[in-house]
Amino acid sequence: MNKFMIRMKAAFDKMEAIRAKAETEKRVMTAEEIEERATLKIEIEAAEGEMKSVDEEEEIRSRLFGDDPAGGALTIEGDPVITIEDQPIYRGSAASALGQQLLDIRTMTRPENFGNAEVTEARGRIEKTQTRNIELAETRAKKENRAAATGGFTVGVPSDGGFFLQGETAVDLMTTGFNNSEVLSRCDSRTMNPGTQFLEIIGIDETSRANGSRGGGVRVYTAAELDSFTQSKTKFKKIRIEPTKLTGLYYASGEVIKNVTFLGQEMRQLFGEEFAFKCQDLVINGSGAGEALGILNADCLISVTKDTGQVKDTISTNNILSMESRLSNEGPKVVYLVNRETKPQLSKLSIAIGTGGVLVPLYKTEFDQGKRIASLNGLPCVTIEQAAALGDAGDVILADMSQYITANKGDINEAMSIHVNFLYDQETFRFLYYFDGQPRWSSAITPYKGSATTGPFITTAARA
């Protein structure tokens, strides 16, 4: 029995159960029961229509490509076995594709459309989109070899009111902000199975590099011939990350709804950028109470003392050098994150080199393929809105972003309602995204030699 027959049989069984219950209780069916049976009937008709459509497609495929089961299908690069449908369900530009999907969701959720052929067609496209997303998620999970199981890139169930963005469009929506974020793109990002409530990462409980503390307690000893071995053991800790819900709400007027491309363009720009902004703000400033724990509120943050007699709202060369002396590791994802207000101060910083005392600027800019790239003492320097104002702790942050873990439950998911602002001819689109994050480190570490602690996130104390 194919999947369509299974869906139809399940719906028929529910309809029969509702009728049988009313007969057993010797009463007529309630209005709610009648409405539920009508909804089940629509689901049966939709499944039947989709089954016929698939049969027709298979007949065409067989006629065109013979017995080749992969004829016309798109093979994922690096995996010749797993294939997905040869074309996206929604075509055209990213904005047009998004607009088409939103209109299909609108069609399905308006009660006056129930039972219409238009609803059946819209439902078919949305369900095909869901199937395609699941296939893509399974393929990516196998390629990436990580815990992103079936449905790992979507959240919700269509029959429960959650409708899916097409995989390519959901990724495109996020790309407008997420992938272009200098902070989020540097984090250690994990995608969880939507059914998983939290992610636990086992780490080494290390707070000092002194003998007996490295690696959580592992030690190596010098031994003479025939000496017995001296045991050591390590301590572990758990990092628990539990993505919480971020929501966005958008009201579209009747006039906007009529313009598919404009609707899609506006959604992509507004929500792609806003979700990225919110997540980046959580990574920097999150409280850790019901939301991500941000760098500036983490126990592993190191605050370097300001210079003696340092003038208010200034940044000195010694501030920068002192921050770098406390950094635990200079890996490829180390970056300076600064507020825009710090630029005049950073531009004045220099260090004397050689016997002649030639001043070399610490802050430099250059152009790479038309884009201006800044560096501070040889490390990337990125301007972000979420850094603190000039003179406050956090106006300049030195961060190894590989030591910050983020987790999500897949791409942005959305649903729609006509009822919220019905009297204003506005339709409401709701966007959901699940996100959490925190540093790998629970505290700064005391070095093997010296007493000044080191860590992955450094800032200078307030100079206000």
Any overview of this molecule?
- The protein has a domain at 302-405.
- The protein is built from nine helices and 18 strands.
- The chain has helices at 3-24, 31-65, 94-109, 117-144, 167-175, 254-257, 260-285, 317-325, 343-346, and strands at residues 74-75, 83-84, 188-191, 199-204, 236-241, 244-253, 302-304, 334-338, 350-353, 358-361, 363-368, 371-376, 379-383, 396-400, 404-408, 413-417, 426-439, 457-460.
- The protein has a seven-stranded mixed beta sheet. Strands 3, 6, 15, 16 and 17 form a five-stranded mixed beta sheet that branches. The chain has a two-stranded antiparallel ribbon with strand order 1-2.
- A hairpin with a 7-residue loop joins strand 1 and strand 2 (83-84).
- Helix 2 packs across helix 4 (117-144), helix 3 (94-109) packs across helix 4 (117-144) and helix 3 packs across helix 5.
- It is elongated and about 95 Å long.
- 31% of the residues are buried.
